[in-house]
Automatic annotation (TrEMBL):
SUPFAM superfamilies: UDP-Glycosyltransferase/glycogen phosphorylase (SSF53756). InterPro entries: Glycosyltransferase_grp1. The lineage of its organism: Bacteria, Pseudomonadati, Pseudomonadota, Alphaproteobacteria, Hyphomicrobiales. Gene3D superfamilies: Glycogen Phosphorylase B. Keywords: Plasmid, Transferase. It comes from the Bacteria. One of its GO terms (molecular function) is glycosyltransferase activity. This is Glycosyl transferase group 1.
Amino acid sequence: MKIAFHAPLKSPDHPVPSGDRQMARMLIEALRLAGHDVGVVSQLRSFLRETSHSAFSAVRDESQREIDRIRRLWRSEGPPDMWFCYHPYYKAPDLIGPSLSTEFSIPYVTAESSYSYRRNIGAWKLAQDEVAAGARRAAVNVCFTQRDRHGLDEAIPGARTALLAPFIDVSPFRDLRRTKQGETRLLAVAMMRAGDKMDSFRMLARSLALVADLPWKLTVIGDGPARAEVLETFAAFPSERLEWLGEKAPQAVPALLAAGDLYIWPGCGEAYGLAYLEAQAAGLPVVAQRTAGVPEVVRDGETGCLTTPGNTEAFAAAVRQLLVDEASRKQMAERARQFVFEQRSLPAAAARLSGIFAEFVDCAK
């Protein structure tokens, strides 16, 4: 099929890296691997950090101009066979796809659509009503976690949903060689910004203080506007125990992960976290919290340890266990790599998408 791809939160061509941009790019690759012709149909970003009726109205006007542009293009060159929208939610609704899909009689599909009852107030409700309408209209709403699927099913009865587990491109990790460097190396990859990320950095610092009697070195990959606050959070640790690498190009990350022994990131409010899959693909077991979508990407007791949310002592105890038990750490490392390569790869995602389309989209044409 010829697929028009749109990501209203952040285009896959956006210059600023993030998990959303990475997932959008992975979805495009999986769709292409499944045999589809995929193109980004619009660069319009409908994201509103804060909103008002006037701000929402302005985004709607921009969206109408995009609808007019795309309509002219499709009337001249012909429409695609499907509109595929990634991650519409109350801060970034798809204000283009549902209208055009109806007008040109093509299937409308969403991935990672979400609904929050807490946002049914003020101008947020205007945006969320658009998300709900799109989910109801969709031939299928592809969910990445059972948590999100249950939430959508509960909020929008009758919406058609299917599950696609989070995945990554494993090819950069296929020929990695472990590069052990003396002391046990702990790894974390994260943007440095306020909110959930900063909460995770604080919890990480508190947890590591509880295992300061053991030999380890922490390497952090990532940067961002909260860098100074992150460094201050770890100010009590000796400098030789910390390594701040800053932002690294995606192609450099696999080798850096392969130099580690254990991936530790609390994951406060993490939707699921593709970095957990990348770490496991590099052969690192994971310590994280059993929160949000993290259990969808880490197998507790098999590929890592998931601890009670908010329990710093439990998190530190899991880190301690894998620091001192090298045999268990190596067993988990092998299972982690096998798990990602066999179940969370691009080919696995492409096959699953083909199955979803066969079940929901083909019959909707």
